[in-house]
Amino acid sequence: MDHSQAGQAAANARRAAWMRVLALADPAALDGAFGALGGLPPHRTLRPAQTGMAMVRARSGGTGARFNLGEMTVTRCAVTMDDGVVGVSYVQGRSLRHAEQAAIADALLQLPDWHETVQAHLIQPLARLHAERAERQARVAAQTKVEFFTMVRGED
């Protein structure tokens, strides 16, 4: 892998990280944080937010043969900024607004003038909220954990 490929791979990883945060964000939290960004640069819709189905695939035991687990509802959207930067989103569920806001945020994060602002006001707070929610769920799950042990009997 040459230097340009490594740089592109790193850029793709950064974009995937913020797209994950946007996709997993609570729609109400995203809406509130989005409002804090203020006036946005002009943009237009390439693909309006639309809802459809996607097949979810899984692996037996996490590593075995793939199988179709079932379908889930997904909403997607694509926008473009006036300078040609394209933002896309795919979110679970039917929230058209969530998909549209995530696509706009994706485009803004690709603009150098907006990147730090969107990271500070949108991505970092939403990532914190997601981590706190996951931690709460893990604590609740840990309360129901059952430990099994085997007692060894002596020889008769």
How would you describe what is shown here?
The protein is of the alpha+beta class. 49% of the residues lie in helices and 26% in strands. The protein has 4 helices and 3 strands. A 3-stranded antiparallel beta sheet has the order 1-2-3. β1 and β2 form a beta hairpin. α1 runs antiparallel to α3, α2 crosses α3 and α2 packs antiparallel against α4. The longest helix is centred in the C-terminal third of the chain and has 32 residues. The N and C termini lie far apart (65 Å).
What's the quick description here?
The protein is of the alpha+beta class.
Query: Strand-and-helix sequence, N→C?
Result: HHEEEHH
The global form is elongated
* Class by SSE composition: alpha+beta
| Percentage of residues in helical conformation | 40-55%
Q: Beta-strand level of the residues, as a percent range? A: 25-35%
Instruction: Calculate the terminal CA-CA distance, rounded to whole Å.
Output: 65 Å
The count of β-strands is 3
Across the major sheet, the strand order is: 1-2-3
Report on the biggest sheet: 3 strands, antiparallel
| Model regions low in confidence, pLDDT < 50 over at least 5 residues | none
Rg for CA atoms: 21 Å
